[in-house]
Write a structure and sequence with these properties.
- By secondary structure, the chain is mainly β.
- The strands form two sheets. Strands 2, 4, 5, 6, 9, 10 and 11 form a seven-stranded mixed β-sheet that branches.
- Strand 7 and strand 8 form a beta hairpin.
- The protein is globular, with a radius of gyration of 13 Å.
């Protein structure tokens, strides 16, 4: 199983980035997928999740600014991040969980697979 994130980088506040996560080694369309992030000195937290049917869930801090999506034909997960803020700076990880409750996936309790992360830095 592999989850490989890409698309991170440095951007000014107010800017946008699009993260991708390429999945392999498992039946992607059957899994809920999510994005988590971890800032230096803080715990890793879930920010968005999407079910195999496209149902989505977001934490309040990113709602209205970030959009999670997936392409089951390409086995790829995306996170479109707009109106980025300095507080969004973190390592971003994608994650996979089978048979999830989408709204609960961001608590991270039942994640089966993790990616290695991609760094996002937002400057003021």
């Amino acid at each position: 199983v592999k989850l490989v994130e890409s698309g991170g980088g440095s951007v000014q506040a107010g800017g946008s980035l699009r993260l991708s996560c390429a999945a392999s080694g498992f039946t992607f369309r059957y899994y809920c997928m999510g994005w988590f992030r971890q800032a230096p000195g803080e715990e890793r937290v879930g920010i968005a999740a999407i079910g195999g049917d496209g149902t989505t869930s977001y934490v309040d801090s990113v709602k209205g600014r970030f959009t999670i999506s997936r392409d089951n034909a390409k086995n790829t997960l995306y996170l479109q991040m707009n109106s980025l803020q300095v507080e969004d700076s973190a390592m971003y990880y994608c994650a996979a969980e089978e048979n999830c409750v989408v709204a609960a996936m961001t608590d991270g309790s039942f994640i089966e697979y993790w990616g290695q992360g991609t760094q996002v830095a937002v400057s003021s």
